[in-house]
Amino acid sequence: MIIVLNQNAAEEDVEKIKRKMISLGCEIHESRGTNYHIFGLVGDTSCIDPSLIEANRNVDRLISVQEPYKKANRLFHPEKTVVNVEGKEIGGGEFTVIAGPCSVESEEQIVSIAESIKESGAAFLRGGAYKPRTSPYSFQGLGEQGLELLKLAREKTGMPIVTELMSPDKIGKFVADVDIIQIGARSMQNFDLLKEVGKTSKPVLLKRGMSATIEELLMAAEYIMSEGNERVILCERGIRTFEKYTRNTLDLSAIPVIKKYSHLPVIVDPSHASGYWWLVEPLAKAALAVGADGLIIEVHNDPANARCDGQQSIKPERFKALMDILGKMARVINE
């Protein structure tokens, strides 16, 4: 339920309404803009008599929220959320690109890629230190050594780092060392993990599960936000369908749908969506055209010998060419 307050309501009257709702067991999510002031009510609202609320002269109207997600709902937060990370924004109007290798392999590899993508215009460096793999015999990442190498690349380039957290026991290390905590597709409904990152103030990049609906993705975001962390970035990375040619099927329609129903920024991962390096460029262009706030792209200096997902990684020179094209597209779209 949402209480839309009158614009001329006195602050003392607004506070009375707030105290009344809290006394009835509701959590208040307040949002105020130039032309609106609302209270989003989270919790059991069955004890609230709508007629009594609407009779209050300081209330303009009540809105019933049908969707199960509340804090992630645009009705609760009419203005779009902008996540600021070390002076760089995601969701603020600029098309933000996160790039880097699937996994950190060596100091030379991660530093050279970081320097290259920064020169091409990427804002964030991605790299897996801990890798969730389908096979237990596949490369699982360098672990803590990988985190240290990411920190070294950040120190040398100034680029904030994004990497995946797989278990709650490492959250302290990630909070101390990482700029954006990534929750991978396989962990999207690991609710204990979501609640733990929700207790931090770190930005969270939440990837859509391979078989998850849009509502399930937003409910996963709700788990994080319900614990107090509202710095959530959503990521569409393709879903599993009957089509077997590509690794996944990129659901481009999810971008405008999410933007209609949620205020959270959403980026696209064309690398995992396609599974092929040559599909990254057209899907990246499509993501920009459909309204995404940015991309996360896998870039490797030697894809043929990459220890993870080389077939979907593009080389630094191709990444630079793509960034040039995306820059031109963005200027046309924003005119």
Task: Estimate what percentage of residues fall within beta strands.
Answer: 15-25%
Average residue pLDDT: 93
Strand order of the largest sheet: 7-8-9-10-11-12-13-14
The share of residues in helices is 25-40%
Question: CATH H level of the largest domain: which superfamily?
Answer: Aldolase class I
Question: Layout of helices and strands, plus pairs?
Answer:
Elements: E1 2-5, H1 11-23, E2 27-32, E3 37-42, H2 50-55, E4 59-63, E5 83-85, E6 88-90, E7 96-100, H3 107-120, E8 124-126, H4 144-157, E9 161-164, H5 171-177, E10 180-183, H6 191-198, E11 204-207, H7 214-226, E12 232-236, H8 254-261, E13 266-268, H9 270-274, H10 277-290, E14 294-298, H11 316-333
Parallel strand pairs: 7-8, 7-14, 8-9, 9-10, 10-11, 11-12, 12-13, 13-14
Antiparallel strand pairs: 1-3, 1-4, 2-3, 5-6
Helix pairs in contact: 3-4, 3-11, 6-7, 10-11
